[in-house]
Amino acid sequence: MSDPFVRLAGLKRSFSQGGETIEVLRGIDLVIRPGEIVALLGPSGSGKSTMLQAVGLLEGGFTGQIAIAGIEASALSADARTTLRRDHLGFVYQFHHLLPDFNATENVVLPQLVAGKPAAEAKARAEELLTALGLAHRLTHRPSQLSGGEQQRVAVARALANRPGLVLADEPTGNLDEATADKVLEEFLKLVRGEGSSALVATHNERLALRMDRVVRLHEGLLA
């Protein structure tokens, strides 16, 4: 069996509010293996986004162990964490967060340029991903010219542009109608599997969660 791409051990996160301590994560243990797509199921407010922020190395305040691609992240400097995040992780959010002044291709090219990829190679990669997502006819359209489903497809392409080992998706279809959500999720899963990436997908939709390889449920700060 392959080594885990993600390993969480004893992950905790608490917040102070009104003089009280609120424990959002109370000791999370989780292993995600290369190529595995895991649904993180739980109602709104259960801590799914907080857990994804931890795995994505997006903020501090957590205790416990977070290992990505065999690298223990808690001991790293801020710069080293940024490099680990850039080299190994991709992100898809409920709202696409595309750059409005850039067209679809440019939105997918940009993170590749930041990672040091040559412009021609980055453009070819962007067009490959967007075409795979059914957007070959929309390559030069800006976000305002795209439907909600098309915008989210561009966001999926952007997340996969640098060939991450792990894609973190936070309610990636939560802002779409049911039919569009089904189609975008189908394309997302097909593309992630085709790329050989792992994924951790936060959702409150059990029907969508059951289409993934494994479902873990976040309840009262623990996984079940």
From TrEMBL:
<dbReference type="InterPro" id="IPR015854">
    <property type="entry name" value="ABC_transpr_LolD-like"/>
</dbReference>
<dbReference type="Pfam" id="PF00005">
    <property type="entry name" value="ABC_tran"/>
</dbReference>
<dbReference type="GO" id="GO:0005886">
    <property type="term" value="C:plasma membrane"/>
</dbReference>
<keyword id="KW-0472">Membrane</keyword>
<dbReference type="InterPro" id="IPR017871">
    <property type="entry name" value="ABC_transporter-like_CS"/>
</dbReference>
<feature type="domain" description="ABC transporter">
    <location>
        <begin position="6"/>
        <end position="224"/>
    </location>
</feature>
<keyword id="KW-0997">Cell inner membrane</keyword>
<dbReference type="InterPro" id="IPR017911">
    <property type="entry name" value="MacB-like_ATP-bd"/>
</dbReference>
<comment type="similarity">
    <text>Belongs to the ABC transporter superfamily. Macrolide exporter (TC 3.A.1.122) family.</text>
</comment>
<keyword id="KW-0547">Nucleotide-binding</keyword>
<dbReference type="InterPro" id="IPR003439">
    <property type="entry name" value="ABC_transporter-like_ATP-bd"/>
</dbReference>
<protein>
    <submittedName>
        <fullName>Lipoprotein-releasing system ATP-binding protein LolD 1</fullName>
    </submittedName>
</protein>
<dbReference type="InterPro" id="IPR027417">
    <property type="entry name" value="P-loop_NTPase"/>
</dbReference>
<dbReference type="GO" id="GO:0044874">
    <property type="term" value="P:lipoprotein localization to outer membrane"/>
</dbReference>
<keyword id="KW-0449">Lipoprotein</keyword>
<keyword id="KW-0067">ATP-binding</keyword>
<keyword id="KW-0813">Transport</keyword>
<dbReference type="GO" id="GO:0016887">
    <property type="term" value="F:ATP hydrolysis activity"/>
</dbReference>
<dbReference type="GO" id="GO:0022857">
    <property type="term" value="F:transmembrane transporter activity"/>
</dbReference>
<keyword id="KW-1003">Cell membrane</keyword>
<dbReference type="InterPro" id="IPR003593">
    <property type="entry name" value="AAA+_ATPase"/>
</dbReference>
<dbReference type="GO" id="GO:0098796">
    <property type="term" value="C:membrane protein complex"/>
</dbReference>
<dbReference type="GO" id="GO:0005524">
    <property type="term" value="F:ATP binding"/>
</dbReference>
<dbReference type="GO" id="GO:0089705">
    <property type="term" value="P:protein localization to outer membrane"/>
</dbReference>
